[in-house]
Amino acid sequence: MTFNSQEIIQDVRGEFEKLLDFVTGEDARTAKADNIERGLFKMLLSLGAKLLQLFFTMRSEICSRQPIQNKSGQELSYHRDTERVYFSIFNKVFIERPYFYEKGVGTQIPLDAELGLGDDSYSDLLRETTEYSAVYHVYGGKSADFLERLFGFRLSTRALQRNVAEDSESVEAYYAQKPPPCPENEAEILVIQADGKGIPMVLEEDEVAEAQVRLGKGQKHGHKKEAIVTTIYTILAAPRTPSEVIASFFKENQPEKTSKKETKPQNKHIWATLDGKDVALLRLSIQVALREGVHILHRVALCDGCEALQSRIVLQFQGFILILDFVHANEYLWDAANSLLGEKSDQRLEWVKSRTRQILSGQTEQVIADLRRIAKYKKTKVSQRTQLNKTANYFERNLPYMDYQTYLSNGYPIASGAIEGACRHFVKDRFELSGMRWLQTGAENLLRLRAVAENEDWDAYYSYRREQRQLRLYGQPASNAKPLEAQAINSQPVLKAFVSTGYAKYCQLPLAV
User: Fold this and answer.
1) DSSP letter string over 209-240?
2) Is residue 393 a part of any domain in this protein?
3) What dihedral angle (degrees, nearest 10) is formed by the CA atoms of 440, 451, 283, 477?
4) How many domains does the chain have?
5) Which of 49, 147, 185, 235 places its Cα 20 to 30 Å from the Cα of 308?
6) Which H or E run contains 493?
């Protein structure tokens, strides 16, 4: 298929005249706005494809066909023009470019490097658009239907999964070279959080089970594997009193205006992995090392009552004050109140509120004693006694992490809302939709790209990936990239932290510092 730039220009001019006539002609004087808008969109997509084809044709025409030299200084002669398909956001176009070849020497296509093309047929914009959709919506199905309605073509689920897998490969390397936030943009308290959320996985036996019309009792098509979600951010100290927390938490009447400034997390970074608690916390320790400095005055770790996470955090983050998430603690009080008073009792709220005030005021041991005393009453039912002791045991085990009176006076956060929200929207809302089951590799790939999106690094990451691809395929940086030496200098502190913690081995990256 041969293109001529002058012929395409004439065609484009004709198309543009049609566009003008479409919005100014006789029919447009009585047309509905919706008809014009829909028609314009389709025509502009068509025009975009032709203009893109013109760009590629023009670049091919001005590309030299004179012999070239490879890196070894060997000469390659022009052999012929060869064609490649380019799937763009406008639709499919074709690129004809000179192909240089010499028997026993090799081949080279210089125009591919000049255009920054990848080694597949999909444009970067198309990949980024479809992958961003995949990060937040299911593969295929309605998501694919939407893209087809919008752009007029359909990308197969298999192709999308392959693109996601390829484009998630460099996420770890991107964050390894990304500089930490400037201290001027940080706050005084460094906060880390960790929690787990199950993802439904495919069992290896599923291939056999799929042949069954109906599973037997107790049989399942899959099981859940825990994704460990971590987050790190800084925040300003916000001293509060137990009464202020009670009023806010239980939504009591509060004045509309307050003299205190609302504090928000600064430079929050979120991550999730299916590789286990140790790998997740090891990576988190790297982020901590990068965020440390004289500007950090306090260090806080928030976690629910998961003993496996708590013990690891205490061991690995020794400079941090571990705090039991206040919301989890409060839920145990509600469980006790529901068991003791009944879920429809009007007395529950005051019962919970009173004991919450005690816990926030440093009287948790008194709450534990009261719960055990009520459990011993003869009139207390067995089910009530079990729940009361369960709540008391939970508080007793977590007493070292429940000094809320001190935490509040120091202005520390006491609730892990950031990580709870992350578990819900970062994991559950995407991975636990009806009927979903995942292979670990596929889930891990998507978790990485979701992290890039949630951390607002999407554009920066794909720019980094294009630069790395240019180096890998053509041995040269992209035209707008920093020199490689400058990148290496800027990234040295990050790479040193990355390697010194031993995390590099988990990423399979050949780094040398």
Assistant:
1) HTT-SSPPTT--SEEEEEEEEEEEEEE-----
2) yes
3) 100
4) 3
5) 235
6) helix 484-500
HEC string for 423-482 = HHHHHHHHHCCCCCCECHHHHHHHHHHHHHHHCCCHHHHHHHHHHHHHHHHHCCCCCCCC
In a domain, 374, yes or no: yes
Q: What is the DSSP string of 58-116?
A: HHHHHS--S-EE-TTS-EEEEEEEEEEEEEETTEEEEEEEEEEEETTTEEE-HHHHHHT
Q: 107 and 34, same structural domain?
A: yes
Neighbouring residues of 333: CB distance < 8 A, sequence distance ≥ 6: 352, 355, 356, 359, 391
Digit-coded pLDDT (tens) for 95-151: 999 999 999 999 999 999 999 999 899 999 999 999 998 888 887 666 677 778 888
Name which of 189, 400, 163 is nearest 291 in CA terms.
Answer: 189
Cβ within 8 Å of residue 449, ≥6 positions away:
131, 134, 135, 164, 167, 168, 171
Task: Return the structure tokens found at 380.
Answer: 């207390």
Largest CA distance in the chain: 99
Predicted local distance difference test score (pLDDT) of residue 204:
58
The residue out of 357, 384, 401 marking a domain boundary is: 401
Query: How many CB atoms lie under 10 A from the CB of residue 57?
Result: 22
pLDDT at 183 > cutoff 90? yes
Residue 502 has pLDDT above 80, yes or no: no
What DSSP designation does 353 have? H
Give the span between the Cα atoms of 426 and 319, in whole angstroms: 28
Same domain, 82 and 135: no
Q: How far apart are CA 124 and CA 134, in angstroms?
A: 15
DSSP 367-394: HHHHHHHHHTSTTS-HHHHHHHHHHHHH
Using the 8-state DSSP alphabet, how is residue 193 labeled? E
Q: Where residue 309 falls among pLDDT bands split at 50, 70, 90?
A: very high
- Higher-pLDDT residue of 502 and 337 is 337
The residue among 260 and 1 whose pLDDT is bigger is 1
**434-456 confidence digits (pLDDT tens):** 778 899 999 999 999 999 999 99
CA angle, corner 358, sides to 355 and 362, nearest 5? 145
Q: How confident is the model at residue 505, as a pLDDT? A: 47
**Would you call 25 helix, strand, or coil by DSSP?**
coil
Instruction: List pLDDT tens digits, range 233-272.
Output: 999 999 999 999 999 888 876 555 555 556 789 999 999 9
Co-location of 94 and 148 in the same domain: no
- Phi and psi, residue 501, nearest 5°: -80, -10
Residues 183 and 295: beta-carbon distance below 8 Å: yes
Domain that residue 153 falls in = 126-164
- Are residues 130 and 102 both part of a single domain? no
Q: Is 435 left (phi over 0), alpha (psi -120 to 50) or beta?
A: left
Partner residues linked to 226 by β-bridges: 198
Q: Residue 343 domain-assigned?
A: yes
CA–CA gap between residue 370 and residue 351 (Å, rounded)? 12
Is there a contact between 194 and 313 (Cβ–Cβ < 8 Å)? yes
